[in-house]
Structures are given as structure tokens and as C-alpha cells.
Amino acid sequence: MDLKTAGIRTVSTSLTATAALALVAAPAHAQDYVVQPGDTVSAIANGHGLTVSTIVATNHLDARATIYAGQHLTLPDGSTAPAATSAPKTYVVAQGDTLWAIASRFHTSVAALQLANGMADSSLIRIGESLSIPGGVGTPSAAATAAASTPAGTYVVQSGDTLWSIALKFGTSVTGLAQLNGVSNPSLIRVNQPLVIPAGATAPVVSTNASALAPTPAATYVVVRGDTLSGIAARFGTSVSSIASANALTNPSIIRTGQSLTIPGGTPTGLVGDTFLGYKYPADVVASANINKATLNAMDVPSRVKMQQLVIDTANSMGVDPALAQAIAYQESGFNMRAVSPANAIGCMQVIPTSGEWASGLVGRDLNLLIADDNAAAGVAILKQLLRDGTPVETAIAGYYQGERSVREHGLNPDTKQYVASVTALMARFK
After folding, report:
1. For residues 162 and 167, what is the distance between their CA atoms, to the nearest angstrom?
2. Half-sphere exposure in the Cβ direction for 184 (13 Å, CA)
3. Of the four listed, 51, 64, 168, 330, which is most buried by Cβ atoms within 10 Å?
4. Strand ranges in 17-110 using DSSP code E only, listed in sequence order
5. What sections of 214-337 are H helices per DSSP?
């Protein structure tokens, strides 16, 4: 397989059909739990009516049952979720807000906000609109509240700036900056150009080329619930002392949700490998994959069970066989929205950024592969396109893995044949 020229996907996970059957049998009432500082597997098990061995087996933990703050665990059938402690709250959308930023601020998810407010499109919210915040999620941190109430400011472009580095510095997105300032080509900004900076953080940016996007020697990271300085340091391939020094922290044990930290060294490393099936990916692609992996690790994403249902719902809405969509999603990632490959294939459907751009054109709106709904939409839209004009299902499956053009011009590679056989077998299980 010529991994460098594959048009849709260049990497698949090494899941087997046997492993697939284990997930198919996942309990319908499983829930996603985010590990808090001080948690142990035994304490979590006791609090949710489970055994340690059940949690270890379900989440493939090591023999020591190692967990870390911020890690997501699947708690299987029989667990009981902690009771909500408050009634739903109301939040008024401010300038610069996105649903993702609001969800992060209130420790909930985009999906929960959409459900609570009857929203079909997470990208459409209006300044002044009142949103119902699902109960039990608490209130925004002081830092987040201050950020939301701060009016938009102005930044003057400096030599060496890129729109991405400016967005990173101010906790916003390239798309948001470009739209607010009428920048038609985000690659073209000029020294001394004034830019309006929106208040608050927006949706995460998909990294496509880390060497071009992040020329600056340091990155900015906004602390989320459950973070520890040691966990952030490990995620970005640096040390606790380096982050503490860069941010003048007198007590590294004390960081707060919503706090912006300067991360020395630029981009995260070590989260994603650089080799798959004997092919070593370029450093810039792997660096971008690490950025996206770090971003997904810090985000609230659906559990595997919820992601599976999202894939089913998306397939039904687009007129694609749900069994096929589920089979692809499981073969690619096991319904894991945090999956990122060395080829920078992102999320549950393992779509690379260039294919995400193609999918955006297919559905008629910009898709952000780091957002679960958009990731599912991208993968299913690509499947629908590959099935056009009566294309056989097996050929469409091959195109998703190897690339449509490559399949047409060169036929199926040996590993593609194995991929097609595995997905076809999984389809029968998802019927």
C-alpha cells in the first residue's frame, strides 16, 4: 500500500474482527467518567457499584490499574451516575461565544447543550440568545466569567505572526478571526495590520501542518477541569518546572479551570507515534497529529456508546446504511472520538484534514473534525459520495481506506483486501 498517496485515509487501527465483537456487546447503559485529581480505580468502582476488575477490563488498564486526572473511563452496565446537584441554569450568549466554549465553561458537552436547547446545528448561536445549561454542571469559573464579559479588543500584527499563532495566543480560532476581520485568505496578513480579537474562546482548530502553523517557540493552553500541571507537561512533552517557571507559578499544585498557561517548547509530543505498517510519516504531519490528539484529550467528547449512536443517527439522516457506517467507524477507531493516527486521521471516523475539506463541500458547511457531530458527518458524507452511481459496497469500503482514485487506477492493495473483508464481516454484526 502506497500510504503517501492514499486519498481518503492512510491509516486504519489494528482492530480485529474478534475485538470488534467485544465492542458490539458493549452495555447499552455504559457512561463516560472523567477521572478527577485524587481518584483511584477502587474509589470509582465503589462509588458506581462496580468492581475494580470490571473497570480495568473494560478500559484495558495495565496490571497496576494506572489512571490519570482528565482520563475518560467507560463505566459499564450496572454503574450509577452521581446525582445532579442543581437545576438547569440559563446563560446569555456573548460576543465571541461558541457552543463548544460554553460547554467547556460549564463542564458539560456540546451534545448536552444541543439537546437541552433543541438545536440542530451547533455552529448557530446568536449574541443575546438565552441557553439552558443542563442541571448539575455548576457555574463558570471566575476566569471564564471574566473572559466572557471582556469586550473584543484589537491586536496589531507583528513580524513573524500568523493568524494561527494569534488565534492560539488569544484563545480563539483562525476561522473566527478571519470572519470577524474580513480576511479572505488566512495565510495573508501584514505587519501593522490591526485585527479585532473576539472575546472568549471558540472551537478548537484542526492542525494540518504544524511546521507552518506554529512557528513560535511556545504554545498557549487553557486549563480544563481535571487538569494537573504534571498531566499538561506530559501531554506537551515538557516539564512541570518549565511550565511553572514560564508562568511564574509559586505552587505548581494550584492551577484553575480557565487559566491560560504558556507552554514552553511549542507543540505536544509523544501522544501519537510516527510509524504505521512500516511507513514513517513526515515530522510535520506527526506534529499536527499530536496537536489534535492533545486538543481532543482536553475536550469533552461522547463515550463510545454515544458515539456509536451518533454514527447511526448521522447515517440515517444521510441515507447511508447504518450498518456500513458503524462497521467503518469501529474498524477505524472502535467508536473512539479521541483517536488520532500518525497520518493525522482524526476522531471516530478517522478523517484526514484534506478529506474533511472535501466533506465540507459535500455537506455545504464547514466541518470541524474535532467536533463529534462534524466528524461523524464527514465520514458518512464521504461514504455516501463513494457509493454514488451504484458503486458496489466493497469498492466504496476500499475507497474509504485506500483512496477512491488509487483503487480506480491500481486496484486493491493486499491490506485493503483485508480491510474490506473485516468491514464486511462487521456489517453483518451491526445489522
Report:
1. 9
2. 0
3. 330
4. 31-34, 72-75, 89-92
5. 229-235, 240-246, 283-298, 304-318, 322-333
Residue 314's H or E segment, with its range, is helix 304-318
First vs last Cα of the chain: how many Å apart? 30
Chain position carrying cell 467503518 = 328
Q: Give the 3-state secondary structure of residue 265.
A: coil
Which residues have C-beta within 8 Å of that of residue 68, sequence separation ≥ 6? 35, 228, 231
Of the pLDDT bands very low, low, confident and very high (cuts 50, 70, 90), residue 308 is: very high
**Cα(80)–Cα(65) distance, rounded to whole angstroms?**
21
CATH superfamily of 152-198: LysM domain (3.10.350.10)
CB atoms within 10 A of CB 324: 23
At residue 115, φ and ψ (nearest 5 deg) are -65, -45
Segment holding 261, helix H or strand E: strand 260-264
Q: What is the pTM of this model?
A: 0.51
Residue 429 is classified by DSSP as H
Give the pLDDT score at 23: 36
Cβ proximity of 11 and 341 under 8 Å: yes
**Strand intervals (E) in 105-162:** 130-133, 153-156
CA distance linking residue 196 with residue 144, whole number of Å: 20
If 0-12 CB within 10 Å is exposed, 13-18 middle and 19+ buried, where does residue 15 land?
middle
CB atoms within 10 A of CB 383: 25
Tell me which residue has cell 495566543.
169
* Cell numbers for 243: 511550565
Q: Is the dihedral of CA 210, 215, 218, 223 positive or negative?
A: negative
45 to 39, 62, 85, 155, 387: CA distances (angstroms): 10, 16, 21, 49, 45
Q: Quick one: cell of 20?
A: 470488534
Phi/psi for 2 (5° steps) reads: -85, 90
Class of domain 31-75: alpha beta
All CATH 3.10.350.10 domain ranges of the chain, comma separated, are 31-75, 89-148, 152-198
Contact 73, 30 (CB under 8 A): no
pLDDT class for 168, splitting at 50, 70, 90? low
